[in-house]
Amino acid sequence: MKSWRSRVAAALTVGAAAIAIPLTASPAHAGPPPGGGWVVAGGMTYDSRSQCALEEWDGLVQNWDKYDKLYCEGNGDHDQYTIWYHKR
Predict the structure, then answer these.
(1) Tens place of pLDDT per residue across the chain (88 aa)
(2) Is residue 43 a contact partner of residue 82, using CB atoms and an 8 Å limit?
(3) What kind and span of H or E run contains 12?
(4) Distance of alpha carbon 28 from alpha carbon 51, whole angstroms
(5) 67 vs 8, 10, 84, CA distance in Å?
(6) Rg value, the chain, Cα
(7) pTM, full prediction
C-alpha cells in the first residue's frame, strides 16, 4: 500500500501538469508568439516549460484585466525562456 506522502506527491504532479498543459498550449485563433496580440513579459532561466508556466502564472493572474494567455518560449532543459502574454 502506498504511503500518503507518495499519494500527495503524485496528486501534486498530476495537478501541476493539468495546469501547465493548458497554459503552454496556444489556441488556434491567437497562435503562439510572435502572432497577433502577444507581448513579451520578461525572460528567465527555467528547468522546463512546465516550470516556467507554473512560476509565471501569478504574473498573468495579477494582470488578468489586460492579458488572458501565457506562453513560455524556450528549448528545453535549463534554458532561457521568453515569457509572453496575450492581450485581451
Answers:
(1) 566 676 656 555 655 555 655 555 544 444 567 778 999 999 999 999 999 999 999 999 999 999 999 999 988 778 899 999 999 9
(2) yes
(3) helix 4-24
(4) 23
(5) 32, 31, 10
(6) 15
(7) 0.61
